[in-house]
Structures are given as C-alpha cells and as structure tokens.
Amino acid sequence: MKFSSIILIALFLSVMVSSCKQHQDARRPISQTSGSFMKKSVARNKKLVAGEEDQIKKLMKSKPEVDYIASSKGYWYSYDTENEVDTLTPKKGDVVFFDYEIKDLSGAIIYSELELRPQIYYVDKQDIMMGLRDGIKLMHKNEKVNFLFPSHMGFGYHGDNKRIGPNQPLICTVTLHDFKPEDVYKKETKSISTVPALKKVITDSTPQVPITIKKTIPTPIKPKDTLK
User: Fold this and answer.
1) Which of 1, 86, 142, 200 is the most exposed place for a label (fewest CB within 10 A)?
2) For residue 144, what are the CA distances in angstroms to 133, 177, 188?
C-alpha cells in the first residue's frame, strides 16, 4: 500500500513537470513570432521613410534655384523671407505667433493659411506637428520658411483623419510674426482683458443725470404795456 502511494506521487510529479514543460514550449513560438513581426515592422518603416525621402529629394532636385537646408531631425527647409539681423529664436517658455499653410508635395493646398490663422503656440508645452515643433525654434521674427516634412515629422501613419492621408509627406509654409516670454504675454492679455471691465464698472456706477434743454420763449406784449 505504501509502495503504491509512492508510485502515485511519482506519477503525479512527472505529469506536473511534463505539463510545465509543455507550457514553456508553447510560449516559444509566440515570442519568436513577436520578434519576427518587430523586425519586419522596422524594415517596412525604413523602406517607407526612404521612399518618402526620395520623393522629397526629387522635388528639391526639380527646383535647383532654391537653396534647401537639411535639418538634423530628418526634414528640409528653405527661406522665402530671411531675417539676417535678429539672432534670437523661440525657446521653451516663449509664446509664438505665426501663420502657416499645408500643401502636398505636388503643391496642392490641403489647409490654407486663411483657415488656419491665427496660430498661438506655447513652445514645447502644446501638442503640435512634430516638424513644426522643431522647425519653429529655428526661425527668427518676420521670417517665412518652407518646410518639407516626411510623414513621421507630420501626421504619421494615421494622417489627421480629415484631409491628410496616412504616411503623407507635407510642405508647410510658416510665417513667424513674433514671439515673447510667456509671463510677458500673460500680463499683456490680462491688462487688455481688464480694461473693458473697468470701463463698464465706471459707466454703470455713474448716475445718469437727464439733460434738460431750456428753450427761450419770447414773452408776449400785453395790451397795457403797449406804448400810447
């Protein structure tokens, strides 16, 4: 009886070990598949980026008169208007005032400047297109710059779910009007917003005194006052 119990326990343990081994073996293909998928995904993305860069380079080659500059972040830009006097550029903690227009690589307008204006941007504190986030910090006041963004610097693989398609490279023309420290901007907006309120208080608290206009009516001459 005792011997039978030992055999049963041994069988139970062997079944448990075999079960654990099967579970471990079952996980391996999932891990291998996941790693294979990631490698394929990376290769596909590299191919996609290379294809978009080829499109952009082809566009630049078709305009030899334009001096394009390659950024370290993987996009290109050229100047329509360049400010060579100022040295300051926007930085984190500044508020930027700008207009921009979005086109596809053929030059067709996707979003016009008129429908996007005006733009007020708190540098590095708001979620905007990655390319603009970086490109604006290269600009000086009163400059107009054309940026050529591959899709990973624009709206990526999903587009904007409206007019910009998936994996679409873009041309963004940006005009930087001004920028100033955030605390200065807040003080200015606060002072502007309090002026109308102050004016209203003064107007409402001032009693309205009716103005009476007296008319001079000539006194008629009575008969007794007439000269004899």
Assistant:
1) 1
2) 16, 9, 26
Whole-angstrom distance, CA of residue 111 vs CA of residue 163: 8
Q: What is the CATH number of the domain that holds 81?
A: 3.10.50.40
The secondary element (H helix, E strand) that includes residue 37 is helix 2-61
Contacting residues for 156 by C-beta, under 8 A, at least 6 apart = 166, 167
The pLDDT score that the predictor gives to residue 53 is 96
**In a domain? residue 221:** no
Which residue in this structure is represented by tokens 């030992």?
6
Query: What is the Cα Rg of the chain in Å?
Result: 37
Tokens representing 127 are: 């979620």
Does residue 89 lie within any of the structural domains? yes
Is 74 within 8 Å of 166 (Cβ atoms)?
A: no
CA separation for the pair 155, 173 (Å, rounded): 16
Range of the domain at 100: 69-183
Residues of the chain with pLDDT under 70: 1-34, 194-228
Domain count, the chain: 1
Neighbours of 174 (CB within 10 A): 24
Count of residues in the chain = 228
Nearest CA to 94 out of 192, 190, 155, 176 is that of: 176
pLDDT at residue 12, rounded to an integer? 53
Cis peptide before 223 (omega within 30 of 0): no
Instruction: Decide: helix, strand or coil at residue 115.
Output: helix
